[in-house]
Amino acid sequence: MTELAAVKAALKTQAVETPSWAYGNSGTRFKVFAQAGVPRDPFEKLDDAAKVHEFTGVAPTVALHIPWDKVEDYAALAEHAKARGVRIGAINSNTFQDDDYRLGSICHPDAAVRKKAVGHLLECVDIMDATGSRDLKLWFADGTNYPGQDDVRSRQDRLAEGLAEVYERLGEGQRMLLEYKLFEPAFYTTDVPDWGTAYAHCLKLGDKAQVVVDTGHHAPGTNIEFIVATLLREGKLGGFDFNSRFYADDDLMVGAADPFQLFRIMYEVVRGGGFTSDVAFMLDQCHNIEAKIPAIIRSVMNVQEATAKALLVDAEALAAAQASGDVLGANAVLMDAYDSDVRPLLREVRQEMGLAPDPMAAYRECGWAEKVVAERVGGQQAGWGA
Ligand code: AOS
Ligand code: ZN
Ligand code: ZN
User: Fold this and answer.
1) N or C: which end of the chain has fewer CB within 10 A?
2) 211, β-bridge pairs
């Protein structure tokens, strides 16, 4: 295989998971702007996600958020996905929207609340059994707002205990992905604030516990690709929640704020063998003011473009420049790949996959947007706290 053929082959195997909540209405604490034609239930979210996959060819799975996507029959939901040509991906737990969780969920000082939170996580694993999902994605809003509010060490003990109980319940081939976030909604301490804390818990739990890197969950200026390289090296990178941030957890389209950062991350993924391993490439975004399906198609394309550039890095030339201490040469090799226009290559890849070369135009022309606006009245809100 020529090198270009290998790059194309790799791009055809790419899989970006889209989140069910990105198809629903969302907003900020100030306002949720309702859009016409948004899904009214989880089945319709899957219908929309299927359109994203139909036109990009690389978005075969859809993440659910429980209870936002609560249905009577999860096996039927999985069947519905299958009939539309997609599958259900990660199950995201939600231990942040009940009144009981004012002081936390699995780190809460009251054992009764911790029991309720763990119960919800176990229910999520039951749902995984019904949908055939591999991953349970855990993000905890737990933390404190004021120094002295609760005992930081005891909260870590409670966290470890709750996670262990859920870990034990995981079946063969199932994983627990632990997501960290610097702050928000807690403003003083967060119980899983950084990759180090997530890593320490996952290490103790075992092989089925892995860390999730949400690109919007770091302090400004954090070198995320270094974290990616480190986690991959330790065999502990479970996946990504991709999105863009200008300020905090903005949940804007991935690759919109800083495409160079996305390229650097994808380069470390490729370099560390993460592209061909079990790393889950998920989007965690909200489209508050822009049209949702086109925004998700654009996001998938942004990930594809960054990946194509990362795959185009001349590894041999880079290694030679690095070994000889050629600082500028090494940097130039990386920048050459980043500066390439990979759009013609991706158009070719899509055509070889039997797809239209321009997914945005193909979606625009297919009439789906007009159809759902006419048929769906009273679309669902994505949920709070995305
Ligand atoms: C929250 O900030 C996290 O990014 C989680 O992944 C969360 O479950 C998701 O964004 C939906 O709220
Ligand atoms: Zn996230
Ligand atoms: Zn987030």
Assistant:
1) N
2) 178, 237
Q: Buried b / exposed e across 339-369, counting CB within 10 Å, b at 16+?
A: eeebeebbeebbeeeebbebbeebbbeeebb
Domain that holds residue 48: 12-307+367-375
93-143 pLDDT, tens per residue?
A: 999 999 999 999 999 999 999 999 999 999 999 999 999 999 999 999 999
Tell me the ipTM for this assembly: 0.97
The answer to the question of residue 117 being in a domain is yes
Q: Which residues pair with 213 in a beta bridge?
A: 240
Residue 347 is assigned to a structural domain of this protein: no
Neighbours of ion ligand 2 (CB under 5 A): 214, 241, 284
Place of tokens 């320490």: 200
Peptide bond connecting 67 to the previous residue in cis, omega within 30 degrees of 0: yes
The mean per-residue pLDDT over the stretch 9-13 comes to 97
Beta-bridge partner residues of 176: 136, 209
Residue 277 sits at the vertex; the CA angle it makes with 338 and 311, to the nearest 5 degrees, is: 20
Q: Give the model's pLDDT for residue 386.
A: 46
> Ligand 1: residues within 6 Å at CB?
21, 65, 92, 139, 179, 181, 214, 241, 249, 284, 385-386
- Provide the number of structural domains found in the chain: 1
pLDDT digits (tens, 9 = 90+) for 297-331: 999 999 999 999 999 999 999 999 999 999 999 99
In the reported structure, the alpha carbon of residue 386 is separated from the centroid of ligand 3 by a whole-number distance in angstroms of 6
Distance of CA 249 to the CA centre of its chain: 13
250 burial (CB, 10 Å; 0-12 / 13-18 / 19+) is middle
Asked whether residue 165 is assigned to any structural domain, the reply reads yes
Tell me what pLDDT residue 83 has.
98
In a domain, residue 329? The reply is: no
Q: Residue 127 sits in a domain of what CATH number?
A: 3.20.20.150
3-state secondary structure of 283: strand
pLDDT at 2: 65
Burial per residue of 266-277, b for 16 or more beta-carbon CB atoms within 10 angstroms, e otherwise = bbbbbbbebbee
Q: Which whole-number Å values give the CA distances from 320 to 130, 291, 314, 330, in the listed order?
A: 50, 46, 10, 8
Under the banding of pLDDT at 50, 70 and 90, the label for residue 154 is very high
The protein residue with its alpha carbon nearest to ligand 1, atom 6, reads 139
Tell me the C-alpha to C-alpha distance, in Å, between residue 103 and each of 24, 108, 155. Answer: 28, 6, 11
